[in-house]
Design goal:
Blueprint (H helix, E strand, L loop, with lengths): L2 E3 L9 H7 L15 H4 L4 E3 L6 E3 L23 H4 L9 H6 L4 H9 L12 E2 L6 E3 L19 E4 L16 H7 L11 E6 L11 H10 L9 E2 H5 L2 E5 L4 H10 L17 E8 L6 H11 L5 H13 L15 H6 L5 E7 L3 E7 L7 H8 L4 E7 L4 H6 L6 H10 L5 E6 L8 H17 L7 E5 L25 H6 L13 E3 L2 E4 L5 E6 L4 E3 L3 E5 L3 E10 L2 E3 L1 E3 L3 E7 L11 E3 L6 E12 L6 E2 L3 E6 L2 E14 L6 E4 L3 E2 L4 E14 L6 H4 E6 L2 E14 L2
Parallel strand pairs: 10-12, 10-13, 13-14, 14-15
Antiparallel strand pairs: 1-11, 2-3, 4-8, 5-6, 6-7, 7-9, 11-12, 16-25, 17-18, 18-24, 19-23, 20-21, 20-25, 21-22, 21-24, 26-32, 26-34, 27-31, 28-29, 28-33, 29-30, 29-32, 33-34
This protein binds guanosine-5'-triphosphate (GTP) and magnesium ion.
Guanosine-5'-triphosphate binds next to helix 10.
């Protein structure tokens, strides 16, 4: 049976370059100068301090973003801030207060952070011996640390650190020291503290909606006597070096990391390479049917099971969904005939252990599709060849073919198979196939897919044509290319970061009735084996790997690229959450809510304004976010700044922006870890931009 993944997001080599080289065919503003003071001062207007829109003098609030007019602004004059590149790095109402803004500004700016709160009640955490509550959290040395949370409670993981606590105690017990090892002392012996400042909000925002619900259920659980709020333990953690820059320290030590011998694969161990294969495409194009059919043909679904699916689906009047039922397990999915969550199944080709990530096509479940596709090394883009259906999928506003293709490419996937399915419905017409190839091919090229990396295959999942052997139907005699399984074997294996410290974004969490907890996902770097110590972020708990499972089979070692379930012990199950990351104990992933991104606004997307509220996606984390600053527009080809502090970014434009998330997420700069540094911005049910993290403005861990 497949493992279903509720929600979640990966990436490739050379993406950075590709991103820069991405030819989106948009016009670049040439010779754009930053406006001079003279340019910007006009009589009868006042410029909004947030989105920089020039409002009529009669307006008391900004016409674009609703911000109240600053009392310091007078007709035709600007305060100092306005002539300098706009700076707005204080993301919450609390922070505004700490900045000493005028009350009207506070009010106005607070308004734009008025996220709808869908937070789960705070969960309670157990007694964590490595964590001690502190009253005087040490501040990050970041110049952006203007959060004004000094008065909040803090928690510090410490080794040999002198720490003030609200209750007056010092973190000094042994487990604290062992847990924080490496996190508190860098390779040069400089000590580093990790502060966690409580703000009383839940960290469950890191989790998918479904998972959030799960935490809500367990939120009343209190372990131990301390009853810390989960959030106060998880969020607002700050890694600060006592001396020097903590980011440099981390970078240095990462570079110095030496993998152990067992981490590196030996060819003889396993002749098949792992391939994480996302099956994507417009709703109802036949992704699950194709996946189910492949599994059946390759013996992963027995005849008996298939017979059961056929019988049951017929009884529900859904006979045509028999193969899809192997993947669509839930009653709702079966009843609606729509995949809602990603199904993870496994099959072997001649060359690969293939992890099949059957994604939902319906637009409502794009966030789930992102979760699955983020792990992909390669993808099959399934197209419904039927008359009208291909066209519906290509529709710019309603179709998902384009959106999925763009997302997949921005995840770093550069090799795809376009499976032109349901060819039986068009009599295996070569003309239809050619038309689809021509129209979609143009679009794929515009998304930076190289022709040589795209394989086009006409097939029929229902009639079993061109899947695991060459087609038998004479109407396909015009086709001379590879069959589907053949084409899967032609994918190039992805390069893997075996020799880097462990990083596994947690895609899903499985809890057994016996209280065991497993973190599922794809290892992006490093390796683990039974007995390994792992750092579970963002809770920063250390857990021990009890066992590893791949495709329901126990395995001894998992390495970069492997998609596994890691059974952990020595940790409160509530601290293992989707959107979190398993790390090497000495190399914690960053935890942050204020990020600088390089983004590309997608073709047809609504413009992004200063103050725009968006949904932020990165690996398996999802969070509400707000555009705090649009620093510059970029030339998509050269990456050079073409305009500073623009008012908005429109479709096909690239820009550097600062984003402030409602809650912090586990994240890395793209230059450090591609998988954890890619982001997607969505609003109103559409993906509006793709991008990469270029800087963590304020790192909390
Ligand atoms: P979502 O996951 O909800 O996006 O749908 P899907 O892409 O997984 O499609 P699914 O496999 O559920 O199939 C949708 C419908 O298409 C079902 O009725 C299938 O029987 C039908 N279908 C799938 N493949 C073929 C095919 O090769 N030919 C024909 N004629 N119908 C097909
Ligand atoms: Mg499906």
């Amino acid at each position: 049976m497949p493992r279903k993944v509720n929600y979640g997001i990966d990436y490739d080599d050379g993406y950075d370059d590709d991103y820069d080289d991405y030819d989106y065919g948009y016009d670049v503003e040439e010779n754009v100068k930053e406006p001079s003071l003279q340019d910007t001062i006009k009589c009868g207007v006042w410029r909004c301090s947030v989105c920089t829109y020039d409002n009529d003098d009669t307006m008391s609030s900004c016409d674009i973003c609703g911000i109240l007019r600053s009392p310091s602004v007078r007709n035709g004059t600007y305060d100092e801030k306005r002539t300098a590149p706009f700076k707005f790095d204080v993301p919450s109402p609390d922070d505004l207060v700490s900045n000493g803004l005028h009350s009207s500004e506070q009010h106005a700016k607070a308004k734009i952070f008025d996220f709808k709160s869908s937070r789960a009640p705070s969960s309670r955490v157990g007694k964590n011996e490595a964590v001690k509550e502190l009253s005087s959290a040490k501040r990050s040395d970041s110049s952006h640390d203007s959060t004004g949370k000094d008065n909040h409670n803090g928690i510090v993981f410490s080794k040999n650190l002198e720490i003030n606590t609200s209750s007056g105690f010092k973190a000094s017990d042994k487990s604290s020291a062992s847990m924080a090892k490496g996190r508190v002392e860098d390779s040069d012996g400089r000590s580093v503290s990790i502060n966690m400042c409580s703000s009383g909000q839940s960290s469950s925002s890191l989790m998918p909606k479904e998972r959030t619900d799960m935490v809500e259920d367990g939120s009343s659980l209190t372990h131990g006597g301390e009853g810390h709020n989960l959030t106060s333990n998880l969020k607002n953690m700050t890694l600060a070096a006592k001396s020097g820059n903590s980011k440099d320290i981390k970078a240095n030590s990462r570079a110095q990391y030496k993998p152990e011998k067992w981490m590196l694969p030996e060819k003889a161990e396993d002749s098949l390479t792992q391939l994480n294969l996302a099956i994507v495409g417009h709703v109802d194009s036949g992704k699950s049917t194709l996946s189910g059919r492949l599994l059946h043909l390759l013996g992963r679904i027995s005849q008996k099971e298939m017979h059961k699916y056929e019988k049951e689906s017929k009884l529900q009047g859904k006979g045509s969904f028999a193969y899809a039922w192997a993947l669509d397990e839930s009653a709702e999915e079966r009843e609606r005939g729509v995949t809602m969550t990603v199904a993870v199944t496994y099959l072997d080709s001649k060359r690969y252990h293939v992890v099949v990530l059957d994604s939902p096509g319906h637009k409502d479940f794009v966030p789930n599709m992102i979760t699955g596709a983020t792990q992909a090394d390669a993808a099959i883009l399934v197209i419904d060849a039927s008359i009208g259906s291909f066209e519906a999928g290509m529709d710019g506003t309603k179709g998902q073919t384009r959106e999925h293709a763009q997302l997949i490419r921005s995840f770093g996937v550069d090799q795809i198979i376009v499976a032109v399915n349901k060819m039986d419905a068009v009599e295996y017409s070569k003309d239809r196939f050619d038309l689809i190839k021509s129209q979609l091919g143009t679009f794929l090229r515009s998304c930076d897919f190289k022709d040589s990396s795209v394989t086009w295959i006409p097939l029929s999942a229902v009639e079993n044509q061109n899947l695991v052997v060459a087609p038998s139907d004479v109407r396909l005699s015009w086709y001379h290319g590879p069959y589907l399984l053949d084409a899967i074997d032609s994918f190039q294996p992805s390069s893997r970061d075996f020799s880097k410290p462990l990083l596994m974004p947690i895609c899903d969490v499985i809890k057994s009735s016996q209280g065991q907890v497993s973190a599922c996902g794809k290892l992006e770097a490093g390796a683990v084996r039974s007995g390994s110590k792992v750092l579970v972020m963002p809770s920063a708990d250390i857990a021990i790997v009890r066992s590893l499972e791949r495709d329901s089979q126990t395995c001894s070692i998992a390495r970069a690229g492997d998609n596994v379930a890691i059974n952990l012990h020595g940790i409160d199950g509530n601290h293992v959450i989707a959107g979190g990351v398993l790390c090497h104990p000495d190399f914690p992933v960053a935890f942050a809510k204020h990020l600088e991104l390089k983004v590309l606004v997608l073709d047809g997307a609504t413009p992004i304004l200063m103050g725009s509220q968006l949904e932020f996606y990165a690996h398996h984390a999802k969070e509400a976010a707000r555009v705090a600053r649009i620093s510059s527009l970029l030339d998509s080809k050269t990456g050079k700044v073409t305009k500073k502090a623009p008012r908005c970014i429109v479709a096909k434009q690239s820009a550097v922006i600062e984003l402030v998330l409602q809650e912090p997420v586990c994240i890395e700069m793209f230059s450090k870890c591609k998988a954890l540094g890619r982001v997607f911005l969505r609003t109103l049910g559409r993906t509006v931009a793709v991008g990469v993290v270029t800087r963590i403005v304020e790192e909390l861990v």
